[in-house]
Design goal:
The protein has about 400 residues and is an alpha/beta fold. It has 3 domains: about 230 residues, P-loop containing nucleotide triphosphate hydrolases (Rossmann fold), CATH 3.40.50.300; about 80 residues, Helicase, Ruva Protein, domain 3; about 80 residues, Ubiquitin-like (UB roll) (Roll), CATH 3.10.20.30. It contains 15 helices and 14 strands. The strands form 3 sheets. Strands 1, 2, 3, 4, 5, 6 and 7 form a 7-stranded mixed sheet that branches. A 5-stranded mixed sheet has the order 11-10-14-12-13. A two-stranded antiparallel ribbon has the order 8-9. The two termini are about 30 Å apart.
Length: about 400
């Protein structure tokens, strides 16, 4: 069984108001129809599952047949498992506890980035009720979710703002630390806090000078830094979606056009071996061993015509990939123990593919693999070039790295 947590050790949260396809997106992303493993995951709220990041595998570049351990390689595509959580639907007024507001905002504490599913067709009102005509601009949907989160952060800060302000006057340099303590459990760091204040031109050690607007702007910046989001513009198979996709594009936000229901249909068909389909693909192939019904064939033809032929893919896998590799600045590296065989001690070739953040060093990778390996780090090798690397070497995407330490030698 693969690790339930990737090396980057971050969790993606899937959010959105009711009936926009949020749970369908989650189900499609976690229904693995490739020969990996039948991952168990909790069914308690919130729902956790395992999806994966797909990327070009270095095996093709190195012209070797790999034997992965912590991931899988399918025809030159490396599939790396990651954690995904389906968070309760959000309605307006959540910051005041309306609907499942408190639950949503409590669940969201644990995630490091968000996939915000919106109805690109505009056929879902702000309460999540499906309508017959376009009544909602998805930009409004995006804005209200972001505003509810910002208001919640503001409420948390204001509950302790007097103490933070008073203590900051007598303890210069402690403001960021106190704010971090107040927001503990939200994966918000002092670096996030300092950067958020700097972006809004706020003096971090003079919070008494901050106006109410300053506090609100600080919370907006803090949310953008600590809980970045990518928009999954869902229901692109609806003809009304095209115009709204252009509206989203014009905002400059990171987004991916999606058809979660189509992806779920394709993955289920692949699971029962009706079709040959790899998530993220632009096409599928009917298998001779299957005996589909007329309704099933018609449904697959509609997916091909209305989604794959127009958009190139359903967008679900693209969203997962972009969240990790773009939003979270991830790269993929391949550690090995035997630089000549490209293997681990058991002879598995290119056994592991780790997602690490850009800027990570060779020594960071050593700690990721094993704490003892990091603590006794001597140097590393770039297997592709044969060059010896120091502790501060900045890892690049698709690096194949051998770590040498007193621990590994022992």
């Amino acid at each position: 069984m693969l690790s339930m947590c990737p090396t980057i050790c971050m969790i993606l949260g899937v959010i959105g108001k009711p009936n926009v396809g949020k749970s369908t997106f989650f189900n499609a992303a976690t229904l693995l129809n490739v020969p990996m493993a039948s991952y168990p995951f909790t069914t308690i709220e919130p729902n956790f599952g395992v999806a994966y990041v797909s990327t070009h595998c270095i095996c093709r570049t190195l012209n070797v047949e790999d034997n992965p351990v912590n991931s899988r390689c399918i025809n030159g595509t490396r599939l790396i498992p990651i954690k995904l959580v389906d968070i309760a639907g959000l309605v307006r007024g959540a910051a005041e506890g309306r609907g499942l507001g408190n639950k949503f905002l409590d669940d969201i504490r644990q995630v490091d980035a968000l996939i915000h599913v919106v109805d690109a067709s505009g056929l879902t009102d702000e309460e999540g009720v499906t309508t017959e005509e376009v009544i909602d601009n998805p930009i409004t949907d995006i804005d209200f979710v972001e505003k509810e989160f910002d208001l919640w952060l503001r409420q948390l800060l204001l509950k302790d703002w007097r103490r933070i302000s008073n203590n900051s006057e007598s303890n210069t340099g402690k403001t960021a630390e106190m704010i971090s303590e107040r927001l503990s459990g939200l994966a918000i760091t002092e670096k996030h806090i300092l950067t958020a204040a700097e972006k809004k031109n706020l003096t971090i050690d003079k919070p008494t000078s901050w106006s109410e607007d300053d506090i609100m702007n600080f919370c907006i910046s803090l949310r953008e830094l600590s809980k970045p989001s990518i928009i999954a513009a869902n229901k692109i198979d609806n003809p009304f979606a095209k115009e709204n996709i252009e509206h989203i594009k014009a905002t400059g936000r990171l987004f991916v056009p999606c058809a979660a229901e189509a992806e779920l249909l394709l993955r289920k068909a692949a699971e029962i071996k009706m079709i040959d389909y790899l998530a993220g693909g632009s096409t599928f192939k009917m298998l001779n061993t299957s005996n589909p019904t007329i309704a099933q064939v018609k449904a697959l033809e509609m997916v091909k015509k209305n989604v794959l032929d127009i958009w190139g893919s359903t967008g679900v896998q693209t969203t997962i990939n972009s969240a990790y590799l773009d939003l979270l600045d991830g790269i993929v590296v391949y550690p090995v123990e035997d630089e000549n065989k490209l293997s681990d001690k058991k002879g598995n070739i290119l056994p592991d593919a780790y997602i690490v953040q850009k800027g990570s060093t060779a020594k960071d990778l050593a700690f990721i693999i094993h704490s003892d390996l990091g603590e006794t780090f001597l140097h590393a090798f770039d297997v592709k070039t044969g060059l010896q690397l120091g502790a501060d070497y900045i890892l690049k995407d698709s690096d194949v790295i051998k770590i040498v330490s007193r621990y590994s030698r022992g």
